[in-house]
């Protein structure tokens, strides 16, 4: 198999379709040395390691389930103790493995690694505890396998805890910038908002390397996730522009492939920045002209030529969701439709529409017809109303299941697939 730097070069230089080369977001736990003294362990998320005279400096620790494999791979590369672990941000796939590294230090009698993070990371952990059940539910919905017959558990029933049993909190925090010197290596940490409000990225001047965290994930930027808290698209773009200004020669993201070469990196960062700037500018333009959210959602687009690039595919998040986040950030939650300011209950509205249509069965049948005609947005509305009007109608649930599974198959983003698949599973249970 080609090396990971060779793979990224082919994707960027040749625009090779994703299905012609090995997948870019791999979770094998394998280690690749991408420069002298720099290693990347591909996991969920990756762990980036720098060898210094005082020990290893790690960026992120991956999920707790991946930590044993990550540690094993690292130890095949270096026996040096871990001196510092820096969290690029507080998402569990970046911090979950931290305890395993602390345990390793304890078991080997070496010094406890320093843990570095932005000042907002502890508040994130506190919020996760306050909303642990909710986060377990939405992550089960987002990442669960898609077919409804894989289980009869309703999508709203969280089976496990969200996150590690113990949150390893940073013992060294900073607000905007911090420079670390470890074993002769300098790491300039910088805070910018993007996917989160607690995100850092690092400039390593001796290597002209950027550790990007989730500012780069080799899919369309995760700036619109419909089930998560606020994202910051314009600030994200500014961070990418700041990275470009340093003219890095090595880019080390937390997901996807590392990239070598200043021109190649500038192309990737520039495309991502432009897409986020474009979505923000066009959304604000329409907001400032008095448009409703509905109008903006069905007007603002990213050029297809950008979405066709192998590192810009909307296979996780998608531009339409980013538009919603721009609206939420700058305009609040009111979408401009006065009827939805203080709406009737969904079930009451559905019952009224069903009555006008001649019953829930009519709505369900129309949803089925619209789905067959590939009018999926309308089909989903009517299928949803049918089961809200008559929650015990098994036929309506069977149609709703089929409509949402058909919708799911047409979607590219994991987020849309997850939500539609969860709806199909719910109706699968209700239809039996």
N-to-C order of helices and strands? HEEEEHEHHEHHEEEEEHEEHHHHHHHHH
- In DSSP terms, counting alpha (H) and pi (I) runs of 4 or more, how many helices? 16
Assign the CATH topology of the domain at 26-216. Answer: Metallo-beta-lactamase, Chain A
Strand element count? 13
Instruction: Give the % helix.
Output: 40-55%
CATH superfamily of the domain at 26-216: Metallo-beta-lactamase domain
Using only C-alpha atoms, the radius of gyration works out to 23 Å
Share in β-strands: 5-15%
Q: What would you call the structural class?
A: alpha/beta
CATH architecture of the domain at 26-216: 4-Layer Sandwich
Report on the structure:
It is a single chain. By secondary structure, the chain is an alpha/beta fold. Among the domains are: 26-216, Metallo-beta-lactamase domain (Metallo-beta-lactamase, Chain A, 4-Layer Sandwich), CATH 3.60.15; 344-431, Alkyl sulfatase, dimerisation domain (Serine Threonine Protein Phosphatase 5, Tetratricopeptide repeat, Alpha Horseshoe). It has helices spanning 4-14, 67-77, 92-95, 98-108, 121-130, 132-143, 233-245, 262-288, 293-297, 304-307, 319-331, 346-357, 360-372, 376-389, 394-410, 414-431; strands spanning 31-35, 38-41, 47-52, 55-59, 82-86, 114-118, 172-174, 177-182, 185-191, 200-204, 209-213, 250-253, 259-260. Strands 1-2-3-4-5-6-7 form a seven-stranded mixed sheet. The protein starts with a helix and ends with a helix.
